[in-house]
Amino acid sequence: MDQYILSRNNVKINGKGRQPMVFAPGFGCDQTVWKTVAKAFEEDYQVVLFDYVGSGNSDLSAYDSGKYSELTGYAQDIIDIGSVLELNNAIFVGHSVSSIIGMLASIKRPELFSKLIMIGPSPCYLNHPPKYIGGFEKEQLIGLLDMMEKNYIGWATMFAQTVTNNTNFPEITDDLKDRFCSTDPIIARQFAEATFFSDNRDDLKKVQTPSLILQCSDDIIASEEVGQYMHQHLSNSTLKYMGATGHCPHLSHPEETINLIKDYLVNN
């Protein structure tokens, strides 16, 4: 069973340190998205990388549309990996939706992580005025899912541009598009539905683990208002504003991402 889980999620372990540091990729990406950032921590930590079922070199035969229709299914996989590797007080680094997936895992298993590093997190992408503005109307998200179904390559191109939101990084936009296109369209659509229609605002108050929120500027996916909401409702959280633009600072601004994470770990 242990080997099955490690194979299912294509778990890779590197680094010379003793404290585990788990890196979780965002929607439509695999563990290689952390290539530059994760390497910077290998000298001092045990770096754990993995792929969600349905992406990268994970076991596609393990995909269960019922289990993965909600983010809790992905959170359970992180808990499984933690159990197999006997992780305790690990540092979790999650990008985008993975921030929330890791948060859900920490609620269920508080001993698993000692710190949550959240890059561009959002507890809810839908607008619920006047108290909460997630950034999207329901009709927009339904249109996004319809486009995935009817013109997946067109959607991948459009969404990669939206996520990057910076014409100075065409190579990152192209990289994201290729990553999206390499994912099974049916699985990608189901993951998108689980991501964009989830509402985890009520879960924020359940989190016991100290957290760092890294907030990019000009982030269409997770706005500054959303980052502030996370900070206000997560006890023991630190909010840092980045010079990085868009939604993928670990790709566009890896040095700034590395430095902010290291600074937080040294001082907290």
UniProtKB/TrEMBL annotation:
Keywords: Hydrolase. Residues 21-258 form the AB hydrolase-1 domain. It comes from the Bacteria. It holds the Pfam family Abhydrolase_6. GO terms for molecular function: hydrolase activity. InterPro entries: AB_hydrolase_1 (IPR000073), AB_hydrolase_fold (IPR029058). Belongs to the AB hydrolase superfamily. This is Hydrolase. The lineage of its organism: Bacteria, Bacillati, Bacillota, Bacilli, Bacillales.
